[in-house]
Amino acid sequence: MMASSFRDCKAWRAGGLPLSTSSNEACKLYDAILTQFVKWRNDETLGGFEGCISALQEADPNFVMGHVISTGLELVSTTSSTRLNERLASAVRRTVELANSQDISPREKLHVKAMELFSRGHFPKACDVWEDILVDHPTDMLALKFAHDAYFYMGAQTQMRDSVARVLPHWKPHMPLFSYLNGLYSFGLLETRLYDQAEKVAMEGLALTPDDAWAVHSVAHVYEMKAEVDKGLKFMESREKDWQVSDVLASHNYWHWALYFIEKVKIVMSFLSQANSWHNICVFVMVNVSGVCVKDRWRELLQVTQPHTDDHVTLFNDMHFLMASLGAKESGTSQRLLEGLQELAKEPGDNQQHQLAGTIGVPMCQAIMEYDQGNYNRSVELLYPLRYRVVEIGGSDAQRDIFNQLLIHAAMKSENKRHQKLGRCLLVERDAMRPSSPLTERLMQRALALHN
Q1: pTM of the shown model
Q2: Residue 187 pLDDT more than 70?
Q3: Of 221, 248, 276, at which residue does a domain stop?
Q4: CB 31 within 8 A of CB 54
Q5: Do 242 and 344 belong to one domain?
Q6: Which residue, of 246, 276, 306, is where some domain finishes?
Q7: Minimal CA–CA distance to 121: which of 159, 89, 157?
Q8: What is the mean pLDDT of residues 58-64?
Q9: What phi and psi, each to the nearest 5 degrees, are found at residue 55?
């Protein structure tokens, strides 16, 4: 039996979010899955995500919101495409069929609609539907979290912030998961450059819940964007025991910790063994850390990324998969990824990422490939016109900084004198935004040495 701390049918009703099932166990398991999603943690005492999802399906196989949360979680992980994964596509269809055959609430119907839209890559419309839910049900954490993740994939920074701001007054401290709103709101504030407010809000959340890994992650971003390296190092180290338990996010938080070391040019290979998700290592290795042999790392990484070459769920993923295949000198995989994206760009349908593939995704992938081949001139020509649109591939400012750095390096290495001048201009601009960045300082010195 699921612990009494989770909400049963009556508790969900009392909270104004009734669930269409008569099974108390199913309601509690739904709550347990939602809680782990918000905490970024597989709670082994509950059986983790997988254990809870299996138990939920057993408790009530026809529970629509049970299907919404389990299939929705797989979709927002962006590790599988309904174009290629028939099991996942079938799970989406099954949820829609169940919803149509039952008398469920308007809120639950909207949840099914949003999940179905997201499964087709129609991210903006899915967000509209989640926001519709939140107008009438501002304490629906599943709608809030799914919208937050989808905005992140679209680089919709202001929407990500305002989505949480709108519901905050409706939440009360006694409500389950209340303290986690701080981390969510803080991240939106941070991505809209409101760094001091973001830090304050995250710290308020951490005072209530010290192990909120998303709030820790938000503070890590603040120190990264302000280039407050020593503050960041101290903060991540002092709280490691708190955020380490959130296994889904811990590797990414280690990547943030590693970024501070990169700023200081310390060798951080020990971190790579902990920061072992494809994104963390991809971005880490792409940054030029002198003196570290990373050839084997790329091969290792390719084992993880190669099976996803044809997925094309998000452009952000595609670019990092491309970095891995280029790093591993796997030109066939690189070419296949690019051609697959070009093909999808021809008839994107409702898929928002595929709609952007032709104008942003393909030229950015080509710029990365040109850089890899030493064609720095061409790399600059492809990347420079897109620099203010890169945000649309999703992710965070800290993650997308790899493309700023790529453009700067390409400009500095280009034989074109105008590009070299542009590289210095971009460094001045970077210095204005992050005045104390040791990395920028090193790049400026290198630019002077190269071109004088």
Answers
A1: 0.94
A2: yes
A3: 276
A4: no
A5: no
A6: 276
A7: 89
A8: 98
A9: -65, -35
